[in-house]
Amino acid sequence: MNEPLWMVGTTDPHEGWHQGAALDMVPLSDADLDRAQGAAWVVDSSAGPLDKKRQRLRMLEGLGVRAALTASTTATLAAQQTWLTGSMRLVGCDPLLMMAGGSVQTVVQATDGDLAWLSAVWPDRKFVGVADSVGLVFSREILPIINEAVDFFSQGVTEDEIDQGARLGLNYPRGPLAWAKLFGWPQVFWGLRALQDMYGTRFQPHPWIRARLGSSLLDGGE
Amino acid sequence: MNIVIIGSGTMGAGIAQTAIQSGHRAILTDPDSASRQRAQERISSGLQRGIERGRLPESLDSYLDRLSIKDAIPNSDVNWVIEAAPERSELKQKIFHDLDERYPSTVWLASNTSSIAISKLKVNASRHPERIGGLHFFNPVPRMALVEIIRGMDTSDEYVTAARKLVASLGKTGIVVPDRPGFLVNRVARPYYLEGLRMVDEGVAPMETVDQVMEGAGFPMGPFRVMDLVGVDVNLSVTKSVYEQTYYDERYRPHGWQEQLVERGYWGRKSGRGFYRYE
Hints:
The structure holds two protein chains of two kinds. Chain A is an alpha/beta fold.
């Protein structure tokens, strides 16, 4: 547990990932991936774009990385495994739940050994296994709530009133738009689009989100 | 101010209690004597608890002096009427027609409906539709800080201003929301319940895990515990109402599992069993 834990897929890892971590989590840009050569574990926190995530995981596998804790809310673990030859093991997780600092984290295909490692890295968090599905639990709950809230925002209800409504009327710990800011709108968009692909139009990202992000996130042939 | 509340169920009694706690006079009306009796007891015990815990500075008698519970609404000396009758469109439409005929335009009229469009409720109130809107309180009213102020079709700016003042005088935060099925709060909350139901049904995770995950992220209760608390039947009724009023938008489609529980009488904590068992 002395070596740092490399974190890829972001150059600015959210503090939710670091919260209570027993290891130094060191971000690695895609240009510096070779520093992770032979690492026992790497974290890939990215939810999109998926073509870049695929390319990154393949590079890590080529560098002899033995296992990756990978965000699996926008592509199932089964889908991510098809990108690789099988020499690098994958364990899925929900990056939004990590960012939210959830004390109960959902993981996919974690062995007892993996669970022991996860508990050693994040001793304050409990890890529970769930089925390999887009959205897992938390993202599937929170993203459509944000999408609904955006619908009101686009109709002129203020951000403050929307968030007050959820906090005071539902006792939610944050308002939906505050959640979106915590995650970042690209994460919200990628998550909703993956849910839409898997479960249908009820998850279609609100046009306001798409307009806000422009076309940049649609490039790259996800 | 003199506030008439129509309907002495849980919400009506809670609004009346909040009004008298805040220095207003409340006239709580209900044609059913048993319901009036229950409301009297509920309000008295709620006030007594508040006094014992030091939250309310006056004596019980002092608060109750500002409360009248009657079988019919008064004809005069009224500033606001808040309707908290059962969630049936036809009933509420008749109430608003009668109120609109009875009171001058200076009396503000509000519905505490949780999911029926305000514009629909006032279709038969054609004299002064501009003084009719929604004031959606949350249960338990004395403790929940939010009130949704709903502007229906033809509701005036003056109404919204008056509603904001009233809500502030009750010590609550008002947010102005559009007249859409479920308004803001019930609409935003629908996925919390529906996706929970769907993901358990699909085998993504058991309901205990779903609840634990959401509670671990700071939500006071996971979706299944919330549904059991508010009533599985009540929650389903709101979902159905939103689904029907949105012309069957896929996002709000009720889940069969919830329907089955309701049909079996598993309505949550109040019946001893809902998604969880409470015996």
